[in-house]
Amino acid sequence: MGPRIADMPQDSEASLCLPSTSARAPASSNSSCSSHTQAQHLVAVGIMFTAQTVLGVGGVPIQPFGISYIDDFAHNSNSPLYLGILFAVTMLGPGMAYGLGGLMLRLYVDINRMPEGGINLTSKDPRWVGAWWLGFLISAGVVALAAVPYFFFPREMPKEKHELRFRRRVLAVSASPVSKGEDSSSEQSTEVSPEKKAGLAQIAPNLTVVQFIKVFPRVLLRTLRHPIFLLVVLSQVCTSSMVAGMATFLPKFLERQFSVTASFANLLIGCVTIPLAIMGIVTGGFLVKRLRLGPMRCSILCLLGMLFCLLLSLPLFFMGCSTHHIAGIIHQPGAQPGLERFPGCMEPCSCPSDDFNPVCEPSSRVEYLTPCHAGCTSRMVQDALDKSQVFYTNCSCVAGGSPVLAGSCDSACSHLVLPFMILVGLGATLASVTHTPSFMLILRGVKKEDKTLAVGIQFMLQRVLAWMPSPVIHGTAIDTTCVHWAQSCGRRAVCRYYDNDLLRNRFIGLQFFFKTSSLACFALILAILRQQNKEEGTKATVSSPGLQQQLLASGREKKPEESRV
């Protein structure tokens, strides 16, 4: 069908270039700036904070207690794989949430109605707000159902058969008589076996709350003084900071850099990045189990995984485009960005400064804040088979007076969104390979009775040092790249336009910084483990020189007998 002049909704009519003498309705009502409305906003924020706190408390039985629970009751050779599966299944939640969020954001925030004033929005409109709250209701119901099976767990989980055989073997060795020639080895076995027996029999002594409070500072200090534990936690803090920033702001980054909708950005993350991260976690646990990796090889695996993840992030700095031309908005290096007074073509119009209804001139890729800022006086709708397009005509500020298309101009780099996400996904896979080995460094490095507390401290430090400040750091860095802010109630509100080059460099640069810091921590862990192995080898050599000579002599004496056999 051909173009037609449409009945103009109130927002379209208000956005057109009207004579200065015409009465124009105010863009925003003072009622939205009242103290009562602001108090309602604070109440809503407080409710969300309380809900997040309760959600965090509810997750404690799975992480960190569940990690120590699995490691205590599973066989040593199987616990890495079990932990990898636990972490992978835990990652399924964010993957499903991104997919669910992508579907929910296709619906308007008020599902049953569009905004007042006859505004007709689509999901590609920058003013679109999706139904973000609907995902919380669905996920809360699923979490409540998933919590039911925990009521049927036994008070104490039976150990695996291999672990029971190992315990019987340890007890048999400690109780069996030994020959005189094996006195030294028997003494060592009898010294170690009580610790193993105690460790296998119970996780920690049953303490009252008062006793626990008295013991806690000493155990905390002992755990924090452990160099391997401290460095592993610091590396995980850096990795979690990277993940927190990526999870919070990657959808926004994709929207700005590649002109994709919020729903499509969330679907991309849920369908590409999260499954690859799950694959990396399972692979890390499988490698630790299959290759029977000790602390030294676990640290090497973590180092290699983070190194290749760092290398894959280098091309991301160059995958993007500069911000297209936006009429009236200037940004010079070292100058404060602001809104330039528009040229003489706008003098007949009375354009409100706080209005935002972007239009794009397709041939020159110039974007205007509103049809009024382009000098347009009329609106036209062109119907198509699948959708209709809105044009604004008679635009005095556009070269040749050609019509402009409603909506922001698309990025010239939209085709790079899939290669970008593939590189991000591969980097997430390599970073996730380090997840289970790094946990095994903690579980095998601290004392058996301190294991649960050590994992709890690790999770606490991750929340405090990574998940809380990282979104703030990333958000502040992203805000510094804004070139045009909207105003609400006389204060700075949402950012309308960013400098895409600065946005890309600072967002990816922060990710690069956290990956480099994690890599440095794993390098220090490897250096400390090598030094400890050298010291243990030196002590063994110095402590028993006579024993070595006897073994060498007996070896020479037994050689003829061995050759005869």
From TrEMBL:
<feature type="domain" description="Kazal-like">
    <location>
        <begin position="339"/>
        <end position="399"/>
    </location>
</feature>
<feature type="transmembrane region" description="Helical">
    <location>
        <begin position="300"/>
        <end position="320"/>
    </location>
</feature>
<keyword id="KW-1003">Cell membrane</keyword>
<dbReference type="GO" id="GO:0043252">
    <property type="term" value="P:sodium-independent organic anion transport"/>
</dbReference>
<keyword id="KW-0472">Membrane</keyword>
<keyword id="KW-1015">Disulfide bond</keyword>
<dbReference type="InterPro" id="IPR002350">
    <property type="entry name" value="Kazal_dom"/>
</dbReference>
<feature type="transmembrane region" description="Helical">
    <location>
        <begin position="507"/>
        <end position="529"/>
    </location>
</feature>
<dbReference type="GO" id="GO:0015347">
    <property type="term" value="F:sodium-independent organic anion transmembrane transporter activity"/>
</dbReference>
<dbReference type="InterPro" id="IPR036259">
    <property type="entry name" value="MFS_trans_sf"/>
</dbReference>
<feature type="transmembrane region" description="Helical">
    <location>
        <begin position="81"/>
        <end position="109"/>
    </location>
</feature>
<dbReference type="GO" id="GO:0006811">
    <property type="term" value="P:monoatomic ion transport"/>
</dbReference>
<dbReference type="GO" id="GO:0015125">
    <property type="term" value="F:bile acid transmembrane transporter activity"/>
</dbReference>
<feature type="compositionally biased region" description="Polar residues">
    <location>
        <begin position="540"/>
        <end position="552"/>
    </location>
</feature>
<feature type="compositionally biased region" description="Basic and acidic residues">
    <location>
        <begin position="555"/>
        <end position="565"/>
    </location>
</feature>
<keyword id="KW-0812">Transmembrane</keyword>
<feature type="transmembrane region" description="Helical">
    <location>
        <begin position="262"/>
        <end position="288"/>
    </location>
</feature>
<dbReference type="GO" id="GO:0016323">
    <property type="term" value="C:basolateral plasma membrane"/>
</dbReference>
<feature type="region of interest" description="Disordered">
    <location>
        <begin position="537"/>
        <end position="565"/>
    </location>
</feature>
<feature type="transmembrane region" description="Helical">
    <location>
        <begin position="228"/>
        <end position="250"/>
    </location>
</feature>
<feature type="transmembrane region" description="Helical">
    <location>
        <begin position="416"/>
        <end position="443"/>
    </location>
</feature>
<keyword id="KW-0813">Transport</keyword>
<dbReference type="Pfam" id="PF03137">
    <property type="entry name" value="OATP"/>
</dbReference>
<dbReference type="InterPro" id="IPR004156">
    <property type="entry name" value="OATP"/>
</dbReference>
<dbReference type="GO" id="GO:0016324">
    <property type="term" value="C:apical plasma membrane"/>
</dbReference>
<protein>
    <recommendedName>
        <fullName>Solute carrier organic anion transporter family member</fullName>
    </recommendedName>
</protein>
<keyword id="KW-0406">Ion transport</keyword>
<comment type="similarity">
    <text>Belongs to the organo anion transporter (TC 2.A.60) family.</text>
</comment>
<feature type="transmembrane region" description="Helical">
    <location>
        <begin position="129"/>
        <end position="153"/>
    </location>
</feature>
<keyword id="KW-1133">Transmembrane helix</keyword>
